[in-house]
């Protein structure tokens, strides 16, 4: 599903990533770990085609991402749902409206929205909060809205970039359990984090990055940087 082939990424002659060779199969749950500045975010930006490699190639579903035209980028990004630490919700819109808006901007019909949004909210356990505004939600609930919005296009891949960074331990585990549930339904998950406890409890594949290089790739790994 994903292939990094001898990828380098530099900014002003400084290498953020060096000689990245990596494959991720459909349906995997992969954690990418490393300290701040290790290169995790750059790796993810290459996957969403926000950045292009300085050298090497990145493939998603057999497509060379550096060759994707601007008009094809929206279609690519509908296949990749993204979840961030700061939620990126529209605070003037309700939970329902936040998720519906993600469908409206790509031209989905009102009928599709009315069918799909309640199903997605039920999946993330927020059907009873559909009329609430983000300011009325806990941090964990806000993150579940963000996950619902990422899921609404039925993406092949979910990228979660430090999704629990602003959450307390209880809400953190609610979000992690939801990501595991989504993965069990067949969606590939890439979780970027520096939370040792999450990684060690997951017992899933762990890719460790340090100073722009992959230093460890274990099928059932632990965070031992």
Question: Main traits of this protein?
Answer:
225 residues, alpha/beta, six-stranded mixed sheet, 10 strands
Describe the 3D structure:
This protein is of the alpha/beta class and 225 residues long. The chain has seven helices and ten strands. The chain has helices at 40-47, 73-78, 95-104, 110-123, 139-151, 169-184, 196-202; strands spanning 2-11, 14-24, 29-33, 55-60, 63-64, 80-84, 157-161, 188-193, 205-210, 213-218. A six-stranded mixed β-sheet has the order 6-7-8-3-9-10, with helices on both faces. A four-stranded antiparallel β-sheet has the order 2-1-4-5, with helices on one face. A hairpin with a 2-residue loop joins strand 4 and strand 5 (63-64). Helix 3 crosses helix 4 (110-123), helix 3 packs parallel to helix 5 and helix 5 (139-151) runs parallel beside helix 6 (169-184). It is globular, with a radius of gyration of 17 Å.
